[in-house]
Amino acid sequence: MSEAHLVKLRGERRRPFVYIGVFLFAIAICVLVFTPVLERYFLLQTGRGQAVTLRLAVDSLRLTLDRYSRIPALIAARPAIAAFLQDPQSATLKADTEKLLSETATALGAKGVYLEDANGQILASSSSRFDDPLGAVADRFYRPYFDRVVAGGIGQYFALATTSGESGYFYATPVRSKGRIKGIVAVRFSVNQFEANLRGGASEIIVRDSNDIVFISSRDDWNLRSFTALDEDAQNVIAAARQYPLELLRDLPNRRTELERNIELFEINDGRGATGFVTSTSLIARAGWRVTILSPASEARALARLTAIGIFLFALLIAAITLLIWQRQARMRERFDEQREAKRSLEIRVEQRTQELNESNRQLVEEIEERKATEKQLRQTQTELIQAGKLAALGQMSAAISHEFNQPLAATKAYAENAVAFLDRNRDDDARSNVSRIVSMVDRMSSIAKHLRNFARRPQEKTKPVSVSSVLSSAIELMQPQLTKNGAELLFSKPPDDPWVIGGDIRLQQVVINLMRNALDAMTETAAPKIYLNVETEDETVRIVVIDDGTGLPDEVEKQVFDPFFSTKDPGQGMGLGLSISYNIIKDFGGRLSAENASGHGAKFTIELLRANSSDMKDAAE
């Protein structure tokens, strides 16, 4: 290969890097130039997206304003008002009027109701003392709405009480008689409910007056802050109207940038640093309010930066891919044979990788099958443990049950021998009576045997509607011999109706028996053991409660009482699986088993199950 060819080859190898460098530099310049454009776009999207929230806030304020706008006219139409204005010197009429105003204010939830004459003199109010709530001096109004009402209109005005500092919105209407204005009725409502409706959202909402002063805000620190520096004329107007105390007004430094009509970018400096907000503003023309919603601009700016970075990274990825393709083509031109060998090698690697993936898939299928088999084995083991627990319970109850059988058998034998003797003596009635008693004894033993057989058989896996009374009756009958043997008293609070729950009768019976046996074990040292069995019903759930008179559950035991293989009994007295199995049985029913200490007693175990509804009962019947 000649030297000239080598020089040319080196130049061709360097050329892609030069092109890629120029491309990336151009992309970087574009990103820097268009980042402000992206930021403006996302800020506009934020502003447009908050239009619905702003409309809801404006509608809420308008509804609140409209709700009370007709109230002064209704009060002014009361005959008592007109009568008092005809004779304002009458103490009786004044007392009646003030009582009427007080009752009206209480019924409306208003902060005050006031009656004045045509000169603005306060004649009566809902309060016995004025406390200057309206900004009255010498019992006279000076609020701007007074002039509008005297002129024959309806006055509405927001102001801050000059002594209490409480903000309020005023409605006023003239009282006419024969076409002349005799007086004015004014009603004041608190605007605290406005602010309560504005709080809790992701965005801030403020309401400003014509002087750009915030008087309603979702942020307390923005109240009575002016977004525009107040000049001397504005301060004089506010002072004359006494709408706000001037000493409470503060400027809120900000810088505004208009993005489009009614959407601006506010940079607000509240003393803790500048914070950007995207704002949308709507006007409530009748009240002269401007409602503004402010959403943090940081999210839009971050999104713009991320988009710019994403564009640059995408360009970098394109450049890298282009460089790789370029290098690949150069290498193909340089050494075609090497590329063909590389292709063959790649095919081999792909085949190997495919084989590895197939092997991995095969192993994954085997693991899935193994897991399914394990889950099936676990369920089978749990079923066996449940069955073993029932058989163990039957074994522990066998002595008491044997005694329960021996008594009827002995009595049956005695009654049979007596019946034979009675027959020999031709005493048929006595013999018939003994035979009836024998039948009763046999029925008693048959009932016990039936409950034992039902308890010992394997339960069905599916849940169904189950009668709580039936389950508890069977459990009590099975446990009665053991209760008698231990000298324990069972206090059963039977429900007035027969609630049905979603579960399984045999498994639920096993859980109840297990809890009653545990209660007996916990009262071995109790002189007069008692077990309380209660049923509590609600609309959606039914609770079965078992309480003993033992020593209760220590704190460390209460936390792990349902753990497998945990037991407080002596070694050899139990495996610690009874409560764990019971917990899982109730969980399978969609219920909950809980343990706690009962006030004045020992341990308290609560079974909470879903109550069966009519559709469940219908499905079970089908």
UniProtKB/TrEMBL annotation:
Signal peptide: none
Entry EC no(s): 2.7.13.3
Keywords: ATP-binding, Cell inner membrane, Cell membrane, Coiled coil, Kinase, Membrane, Nucleotide-binding, Phosphoprotein, Transferase, Transmembrane, Transmembrane helix, Two-component regulatory system
Catalytic activity: ATP + protein L-histidine = ADP + protein N-phospho-L-histidine
Record domain Histidine kinase: where: 400-613
Membrane topology: Multi-pass membrane protein
Main subcellular localisation: membrane
Segments traversing the membrane: 17-38, 302-326
Coiled-coil features, chain-numbered ranges: 343-384
SUPFAM superfamilies: ATPase domain of HSP90 chaperone/DNA topoisomerase II/histidine kinase, Homodimeric domain of signal transducing histidine kinase, Sensory domain-like
Function: Member of the two-component regulatory system DctB/DctD involved in the transport of C4-dicarboxylates. DctB functions as a membrane-associated protein kinase that phosphorylates DctD in response to environmental signals.
Alphabetized PANTHER family for the sequence: C4-DICARBOXYLATE TRANSPORT SENSOR PROTEIN DCTB, SENSOR HISTIDINE KINASE
Name of the protein in question: C4-dicarboxylate transport sensor protein
